[in-house]
Amino acid sequence: MEQEYDVVILGTGLTECILSGLLSVDGKKVLHMDRNDYYGAESASLNLSQLYKKFRPGQEPPAELGRDRDWNVDLIPKFMMANGEIVRFLTYTDVTRYLEFKQIAGSFVYRNGKISKVPANEMEALSSPLMGIFEKRRMKKFLEWAQNYNEQDPATFQGLSLEKSTMAEVYKKFGLETGTQDFIGHAMALHLDDEYLKQTAKDTVERIRLYAGSVVRYGKSPYIYPLYGLGDLPQAFARLSAVYGGTYMLNKDISEIVYNESGAVVGVRSGGEEVKTKQVICDPSYVPTKVQTVGSVVRAICILNHPIPNTGDIDSVQIVIPQNQVGRKHDVYVACVSFAHMVCANNYYLAIVSTIVESDQPEQEISAGLNLLGPIVEKFVSVTPLQVPVEDGKKDQVFVSRSYDATSHFETVCEDVHDLWRRVTGDELVLKKNDTEEQVNAV
């Protein structure tokens, strides 16, 4: 194993695997190692036995849940925005050849104790039960403005500027109620909190356009999801890296990261073996002294034998519960997939409820989401720390990713990939846009 690599990557989480693939395509010599004997690290998909071993050691799964191989349970569920950055990663690298996708059948938002479909365009806004008749007209005008705004054409501005007007000022101009602002900001623009209200409108309007454009691409909802779960995504990027000369080693414990006298990384040691490298990329678990904990995420993986009530019996859904609706500082997310996505046995459903922890009773904080699910067959609750790097890594050339947050979509993961690429290479990550290539086939 005495070899030299441009980059050694530790951990096969999705963020690390995307970078492994992109760096290999870029011509870097990459070695990728993981202490686990499976791909995915914290973002793995587990079969039934692995799930029980992780959450209930010594307990056998109930026979009625079926065979191990019928289950691929995501520890950290994420849906892909059809026109989002994650799809650009997939199409740019041609990873889509290894994967099949299926639409998520619905995108819902919680308001006033009920869930309703998120309106994605002007026509849906007019028929949405989320708003009264006058508010529907105001919402329709807002969506038309967001879609038609053109920086080259002042006639489309309506007295507002994406570069200067705050989102709070935009909402005020259109007279939108607080509840309407909630689902626009949190279920369409997918903001994590209400800080966006103080910022200029450009980012939020671009997010709304992304949401609406993603719905147009496949209908039903803006989200797609890989058959057999997210565990296949890291493997697909691993295959890509291997095609370009990358080397993968699973079940490989890391003894230490080796530095020179000036504090820069020079190698990685595993037992009695050492490889030389100029750079290391890793998840927080490999360098506990280089990260700080900024919070925790609580997740409940729930096995159901029925679709989520009040969603029209659809096989999959994302539900966003905006913070203001339940008196919290952070949104609660519900992601549901089913046997239709090859992730559980026939006629079963997997619903994962998650949020950022705000108290010393984490499970209580996701009760608004759990209450939407109806009867639960099995429930597995975990609380994991949210960790971020203390430094950017440029000094010692050890670059650390962030923990996965509570969101049930990939937009924040993509932001982390862009941030890491910038830190590692010194350049912006630019993916060539080609609309004919960016189509991902989703059944």
From TrEMBL:
GO molecular function: Rab GDP-dissociation inhibitor activity
Pfam families recorded: GDI (PF00996)
GO (cellular component) term, any one: cytoplasm
GO biological process: protein transport; small GTPase-mediated signal transduction; vesicle-mediated transport
Top-rank lineage group of the source organism: Eukaryota
Family per similarity comment: Belongs to the Rab GDI family.
Name this protein carries in UniProt: Rab GDP dissociation inhibitor
Naturally occurring in which organism (per UniProt): Phycomyces blakesleeanus (strain ATCC 8743b / DSM 1359 / FGSC 10004 / NBRC 33097 / NRRL 1555)
